[in-house]
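Hello forum,

I keep getting stuck at the same step: I have a sequence, I want structure tokens, and every attempt I make locally crashes halfway through. Rather than fight my setup again tonight, could one of you with a working pipeline run this one for me? It's a single chain of 250 residues.
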Amino acid sequence: MSVSVEVLQNILMGFRPLAKLAQRYHTTGGNADSDHARRIFELYRRFAPLADKDVLEIGPGHTLEVLERAKAEGARSCTAIDVVDYRSPVQMSSTCVIYVHYDGKAFPIEDACVDLIWSHTAFEHLRYPTMTVQECFRVLRPGGVLVSLIDLGDHSYYGMVPPHPDKLFHCLRYPEWLWNLMRWNRSSYVNRLRQSEWHTVFTQAGFIFRAEEKVVSEDIVRWLPQLPYLTRYSYEDAVTSVLTVCCHKP
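Reply #2:
Ran it on my machine without issues. Output:
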């Protein structure tokens, strides 16, 4: 797809009625799949216990099942926060999850009120990642833990047939201003931060790392000599496709 078409689509998604219509067809994260929700929950629980904890999940999209499972297994309270309200009418009336809608900037949540913050494939979509991480630090109680799995790829190429493994980081080809013109209003927007940049964002906010896990894209390793736009990155930044972090507030 051409850059001009991408820019046009981005402009159109800036009109709220069109964005609301597109939202009906938008899949997010686990997309309410029970097996996927179970795997996400097990990932979170692997890093920190949740019994009697107040839990906040950032950007769960359609998938409130993760927090519902957490509540069933002993969490004191479970809150979801997202920039779009994806809840179905059934979820609105029956779920035990507290739902907070916000503008992507400051959380409408008081200081030091949660023990655990979870996020799965949402941080890469943040328009204001530094502010969001600072907000996470603010709302955590001392000793509180943040667990986030961050997908570093270009989501606009996911699910394409045939697949294009060389385009996993296609988004990195463009200057920041042009990338924003192409994607800012769209669900496929990614902020393009690399793993070392995420590490800096978390540490500058005051977090202490407990664990950090990285997945290397073997496709990018093979294609790297043919992808000159990745040469400005360190090797680790150029080939890391998924980053999972666990850090705590001192």
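The beta strands are 54-58, 77-82, 98-101, 114-120, 140-151, 208-216, 240-248. If your local run keeps crashing, start a new thread with the error log.
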